[in-house]
Automatic annotation (TrEMBL):
Annotated transmembrane regions: 378-401
Keyword terms, alphabetized: Membrane, Signal, Transmembrane, Transmembrane helix
A Pfam family: Beta_helix
Keyword Lyase: no
The protein's name: Right handed beta helix domain-containing protein
Stretch forming the signal peptide: 1-19
Keyword Transmembrane helix: yes
The Right handed beta helix domain, residue ranges: 124-276
Gene3D superfamilies: Ribonuclease Inhibitor (3.80.10.10)
Taxonomic lineage: Eukaryota, Metazoa, Ecdysozoa, Arthropoda, Hexapoda
Protein source organism: Mythimna separata
InterPro entries (alphabetical): Beta_helix, LRR_dom_sf, Pectin_lyase_fold/virulence
Length: 440
């Protein structure tokens, strides 16, 4: 009797473990497998084009997962709280996916009680995907790196990236952003923030809101149609580089950045540079008192519509150096009048479009050769000069023709009849009627 009851207990226990292992995890999805390194690897095929990642129930992500790698799917959905309890997780990689949806709190990961940056963090990388949506609060917690490249982002909701801790890099390269809502990146600290290449229709106010960048802030090679006021509300970068961008309209105070180092605005093409576009740059008080004022360098940019007020800057703890500014407007003396103050401060580094030759020439050089009281009337002098020359030429021709005519009228007559008479010269004097004076 005793033996049989033990036997039943054993059977019951065995049944339970069977039942547990019978609950399939994502490792049992047709598209996915889990390797001995506890990585979840999903490679979709025509027959299994979709993967859904969920925190519990059938086909949940196993608690031991260290990485989630998804490739070549038509649709990938992260349900809310997918990664919350995956303490071993270190990375999420998505490649070649046609529709990615990251729901609210789907990638919220804070498994360690104290927010210590020595704790490991997640690396999130998305390449060549179309992201339908990154929902509000989708990505939170202990994240090391976020790399999104060669992707199309259709909707980035407010607070999509928020309350992150210990972030090293956020790198957004060669993406097409269709709809970015305000405060997409909200209130966290990151070492380097890089926005590089790609196209953005509108960068809204507070795209980065209260984001502390401790090392490098870089925006490079991006084509932007409209960059609104207060798009970048950023503190503390040691270096700010805004290079080789093509911006149609840059609103006043677009970059509201308190730096701890120099700012470089180089090789950009801007169609409309609004008044006070650079007015939002300021320098951290502590840095300025230790290292002196920092420099805002404006170098080799081409701008079509601007006024000197576009270059206004906050002179407290900041200096301006213009090393190259191509005004994409035809050179004219009045242009120089408008830019006199800037030219006085910045020297010969402002150029204008010289229509006659089809290139940019230094505005002061143009002024020296074309403007001023005499040069202003240059063409009038040229015309008068030409008229005087023509008149002189006409007079000269008149006298030459007259002398020739006189020569022809000298006639020689040789008398016939053997004898030689002295040649007689008849001088025929042509007298002009007007020259006759009569008292009639
Ligand atoms: C990607 O998916 C397509 C069908 O959707 C399939 O033909 C192709 O072989 C897959 N590529 C890889 C690398 O798995
Ligand atoms: C990018 O992803 C699409 C599917 O979304 C795929 O057809 C294409 O081959 C991928 N391109 C590269 C360079 O991997
Ligand atoms: C300047 O910007 C253009 C694009 O606007 C780019 O093609 C070129 O390589 C850049 N030059 C330098 C020296 O960065
Ligand atoms: C200056 O800007 C022009 C136009 O964007 C670019 O073609 C050229 O390479 C730049 N030169 C330098 C030295 O950056
Ligand atoms: C200029 O910058 C300083 C701090 O660097 C700030 O206190 C001041 O308000 C700024 N001036 C304007 C007009 O914004
Ligand atoms: C300069 O302005 C002309 C029209 O005024 C425009 O067609 C051209 O693209 C502009 N060039 C640059 C480099 O912005």
């Amino acid at each position: 009797m005793r033996w049989s009851s033990w036997w039943w207990v054993v059977v019951a226990l065995h049944a339970r473990t069977l039942a547990q292992s019978a609950t399939p995890s994502v490792c049992h999805e047709d598209a996915c497998r889990c390797d001995p390194f506890t990585r979840v690897i999903c490679t979709c095929t025509r027959d299994n084009p979709e993967v859904t990642l969920r925190p519990d129930g059938a086909y949940r992500v196993p608690a031991t997962a260290t990485r989630i790698i998804i490739d070549n799917c038509t649709r990938v959905t992260f349900l809310p709280d997918t990664v919350r309890n995956l303490q071993q997780l270190r990375g999420i990689e998505l490649r070649n996916v046609d529709h990615v949806v990251i729901n609210e709190r789907a990638l919220s990961w804070s498994p360690f009680p104290n927010p210590d940056e020595m704790n490991p963090g997640l690396r999130i990388s998305i390449n060549n995907c179309t992201i339908d949506e990154i929902a509000s609060h989708a990505i939170q917690g202990r994240v090391n790196d976020v790399v999104i490249s060669n992707s199309r982002i259709k909707a980035l909701k407010p607070f999509a990236f928020s309350s992150l801790t210990g972030v090293n890099n956020i790198e957004l390269s060669d993406n097409i952003f269709e709809n970015i809502e305000i405060q997409a990146f909200k209130k966290f600290t990151v070492e380097n923030f890089v926005l590089r290449g790609g196209r953005i229709n509108a960068l809204p106010s507070r795209f980065l809101s209260d984001v502390e960048v401790t090392n490098l802030f870089r925006m490079e090679g991006v084509t932007v149609k409209y960059l609104y006021s207060l798009t970048f509300l950023v503190n503390s970068p040691k270096r700010v580089l805004i290079e080789s961008n093509n911006i149609e309209t840059l609103e006043s105070d677009g970059f509201h950045i308190v730096t701890r180092g120099p700012i470089t605005f180089r090789n950009n093409t801007v169609t409309n540079l609004r008044k006070g576009a650079f007015f939002g740059f300021t320098v951290d008080l502590e840095i300025a008192s230790v290292m002196g004022p920092q420099e805002l360098l404006i170098d080799n940019n081409t701008v079509t519509n601007l006024t000197p007020a576009s270059l206004m800057y906050n002179r407290t703890r900041l200096t301006l150096r213009v090393d190259g500014l191509n005004l994409n407007t035809s050179c004219a003396c009045e242009l120089a009048d408008n830019w006199r103050e800037v030219l006085k401060e910045q020297g010969g580094t402002v150029t204008c479009w010289y229509e006659l030759e089809g290139y940019f020439v230094s505005l002061p050089t143009y002024v020296d050769s074309r403007c001023g009281p005499f040069k202003h009337n240059f063409w009038i002098f040229v015309v008068i000069g030409v008229i005087i020359m023509l008149v002189l030429a006409a007079i000269a021709i008149f006298f030459i023709v007259r002398r020739e005519n006189e020569k022809k009228k000298k006639v020689q007559i040789v008398m016939p009849d053997g004898k030689t008479y002295r040649e007689t010269e008849f001088h025929i004097v042509v007298e002009r009627a007007e020259l006759l004076t009569t008292d009639l």
